[in-house]
User: What shape does this take?
Amino acid sequence: MENLVSVIIPVYNAASYIQQTIESALNQTYRNIELVVMNDGSKDNSEDIILRLQKKDARIRYQYKANSGVSDTRNKGIAIARGRYLAFLDADDVWKPDNLEKKINAIKQTGKKWVFSNLEYIDESNKPMIVELRNFKPYNILDNLLLFEGDVVPGPCSNIVATRELFGDEIRFDTRISSPADRDICLELAAREEPFFLDEKLWLYRLHSQSMTSVNYKVVDEMIYLYKKADQRKWFSSPRLRRKALSNANLILAGISYHFPSQRKRVIGFLIKSFWYSPFNAVQKKILPIFRRSKKRKK
Assistant: This one.
């Protein structure tokens, strides 16, 4: 139990992918694991698939609960996890066999309390997708996550492995947000310690229509809440970074709002705020590219 890794898998209507996801965890070269599979009130046959797999491997710990959202579901998984290390795996993502072994070794060798890696992309049919990372910055994680200027791994959560000590009793997923929950938890962790980056593609991130921000306009209000929280927690390292980050955030919010007719009345307000926080930044970023990219943002 000393080096046990608790893999927390939140499940909601994931019958199409959950078997492949669970098997990718069970087939890790690092064998000392428990799978804490939390069924968040699925209405499909996810439970049947999970119970069938559980009969074959006792490392699966399964729990059904009423639907309460991904953040609360992950928190309930953390509460019952027994491992020294915590890892998170979304029900539609896939780990390569050496993902955990390399990440646990990295924690032990570097003394860091959390680690993340590079990734590959797949579609609904497991076909590889060519996705170019934009302005990839796997360093100064707290600042770069707040700036939101490109692809900043560690989020999504399928990527991170951390010590239970780092989470402690204080860091948990914020139940008031869902779409930016991965970014939020990484901000929480990065505020405590810079992670270690493994420049290897150790897992597969599945892109499909149901995981896109474009199907959920609630992300607008959730992002507003996230940046207010960043202010309250004093996560911004300087006034200049704060102004630039809030300028970027409002440009992104304008772009997202534009794609929902019911939200378009908010676009002008977000653009004005972006200019107010940093006129130079708002002009430099250029408006049209932001509107195009916002449609494709994930989680």
Q: What stands out?
A: Residues 295-299 have pLDDT under 50 and may be disordered.
